Amino acid sequence: MAELTGNCLIAQSGGPTCVINSTLAGAVTEALNYECIEEIYGGLNGVVGILNEEFVDLAAESQQTIRGLRHTPGAALGTCRYKLKKQQDYERFFDVFRAHNIRYFFYIGAGECQETAGNVSKLAEENGYDLRVIGIPKTIDNDMVHTDHCPGYGSVIKHVSTTVREIACDNEATGQGDLVSILEVMGQSSGWIAAGASLAKGRDRPHDPPHLIYLPEVAFAPEKMIEDVQRVLRREKYCLIVVGEGLVDKDGNYVSVAPGAGDGFGHPVAGGTGEYLKRILDENLGLKARTARLGYTQRAAATHTSRTDGDEAYLAGQAAVRAAINGETGKMVTLLRGDSDQYSCETGLAPLSEVANGVKALPVDWIHEDGVSMNHQFYKYAHPLIQGEVAVPYDSGLPVFAHLKKEKVKKRLEAYSVE
Amino acid sequence: MAELTGNCLIAQSGGPTCVINSTLAGAVTEALNYECIEEIYGGLNGVVGILNEEFVDLAAESQQTIRGLRHTPGAALGTCRYKLKKQQDYERFFDVFRAHNIRYFFYIGAGECQETAGNVSKLAEENGYDLRVIGIPKTIDNDMVHTDHCPGYGSVIKHVSTTVREIACDNEATGQGDLVSILEVMGQSSGWIAAGASLAKGRDRPHDPPHLIYLPEVAFAPEKMIEDVQRVLRREKYCLIVVGEGLVDKDGNYVSVAPGAGDGFGHPVAGGTGEYLKRILDENLGLKARTARLGYTQRAAATHTSRTDGDEAYLAGQAAVRAAINGETGKMVTLLRGDSDQYSCETGLAPLSEVANGVKALPVDWIHEDGVSMNHQFYKYAHPLIQGEVAVPYDSGLPVFAHLKKEKVKKRLEAYSVE
Description:
The structure is a homodimer of 419-residue chains. With 419 residues, the first copy, chain A, is α/β, with parallel strands linked by helices.
């Protein structure tokens, strides 16, 4: 494989996570090791910034800042939800790449952004433009294929299960067999996050919460829930419920649609399932259930980052650069779990064409037969992902996060209109 | 002052906080210093447990457990919302005290539970029963009088302002001048907690969020909010709003009542203000604002405990015991702030009769004249209260909290029926 000399471009896409910046830090740090990588650019706001030629010089950032990214939530380069579709967009993309001699492109994102990365890779090959494209996974939803798990998932379930442990102490103090508390968590189409709350339950501690988990994978039936809650309240001082926002009924329709929502295409957006459950319980059991809805705080809770997740996200960034240096292109970094009982994780590669549109479902045989808890197979899978904590620095009582100074790279082309 | 020999009883009441157990630990630890205090009992579930003679032996708990209380949320002894009213209740109360030779009674709670403590103290004196009663304040609502601030408040505003810092990173990554995110926080009747979110804004950093804070102290006007948001979005990539659950309109009515709520007496319970604001903004500005509602997770977030708050809560527990030993009774421990610019705090005492029904309002002259932010006077007041972090021990990826083994004290009376 001939050495390819030129500049590198890194961009981020989709919903932020606690560790997407750790991946960025890993990629930048690794890129500095190779002389054939001349400049290290960051593209602002994913492909939108690339089309607009909005690059920042990542090598100009201080080492402190790059290190600080390892505990900074959000996405330091900004993200977008724009997908390259038009022929014109792709042509512009390559004009920009040529103008800046981009020879290495790393795109950190979920499935649909890996589709873009795959198309760019294919077009480069077709057009004889020497480019190495490596995708890097991220999503709290944990639904990408070909990877054992996704960077971002471990931290969100560490946050959710920590929160369950905390509110359990509160509920324990006030419940007298009459208290129901409901925590609504993210997951429009799968129960990966809600399932993760089960980690709060210690092994062989059947009384620990969460007592009931309602997942999008199990058709929701109100009368069954009422029975479930009554059963728990006969046994415990309180009933702590975790519910995914994407809960569906037996016909596959969302049981609750986020107030005032709709995605603009007539598709409902799920949400408000906590309040929905509360209404049913209050009306049928004469309770006053309490609800909390963590919303977007879930994916930003840097103070609950899993060290395992953060380290693997960093590793994935490094692995992407190494793969490209080794001549790989059109691939996404994957996380592969070792076979032994002792958890270990190394990186692999999968073709972008195969990861783009796949969706990894929560295995239904990891759901306990009661339909409201997870079995040991899930525990074995998820428990290693939340191990270890990340020390976030505090100043004056609050966490301090890194901010890129974003030294702009001079534009070389005419302006382009992104629609 | 003659030395009073006998047993001591500690109980907790009302809504838990992150540091009410720290107060319990302070009281137990201090009580161990005095030989005139023979047994150290905990009453389960506040006055309800006392009426039912449900005591546990706190001196039998391990030192590890008592130390662990300093980072354990909830209320380890359990709480109640029951108020002693009937003559019969008070008679029973003293029967129980006599049967167990209770000579020191420490009640940790907010205003209405201090009323009970005050009544007990007065009746003891009237009946010639030698008893020392000291109340210890706690409430995230920070609305108790005669004390500069309340144990529990510093931690809840550290949590809320940390959360604002975290979601700011997320919003910054995705906002393009079109993103509104709304965080609903507690506070049925005052904006103390919502105001605390302003600490997330660094000094001399006008662009930092929260950009808008809607407080129950300022009559809410939808058209003003729409203008506020438009003004922020002209200037910033996103608009982060913090709203108190107790928001009221110009007539003093809650703008939003918690779904299905009502306190059983026909009084509405506030809540859902985040969704209420969202609906107005979505409809009028064509946005899709995001909301999160931290709910009861706010008062349980031990992982965000303020060390200052935790230490002061502990100190208050110690001070209560010392005051009783020194012959004080019918008083509540208060926190007094030093006069110098360097923050300092010591404890004082105030008559229970004066603290029981007072409510300390958020000073309106601490609200910036724009009505949606706090001025430097608030900052000066609140900033010291969130300083320092508490190291919560983790095991296997999750925080570990202390649980009392609750060795029961043998009952000596016939059963009593608490209604």
